[in-house]
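Dear colleague,

Thank you for sharing your sequence with our group. We've completed the structure prediction you requested, and as agreed, I am returning the results in plain text so they can be pasted directly into your records. Please verify that the sequence below matches your submission; if there's any discrepancy, let me know and we will rerun it promptly.
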Amino acid sequence: MIAPRGPQIPVYGMQAKIVAKMIALHNRAGDNGGNIGAYVSGLQESEDRIDIVRDTWLEQMKDTERLLSAFEAAQAAAVPATSNA
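Please find the predicted structure tokens below.
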């Protein structure tokens, strides 16, 4: 993960939330892990800059959050609902 210019303390928390969500999605997917890395890398361009302005970084973070939410929704839809009957 890259980080924008400026203070890093808020950045670490934002990145940690995304990492935690990815780990949770991976664990929920079972043995194959859901291949989250391939999913995200197939929909986003890779980033290789070592210096990035905060606005661009925030846009990328929002897009990653959006993609993970979509992945989560698709994963939830693929799991059959259990009945309490």
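Summary note from our side: Residues 9-39+50-74 form one domain.

Kind regards,
the structure core
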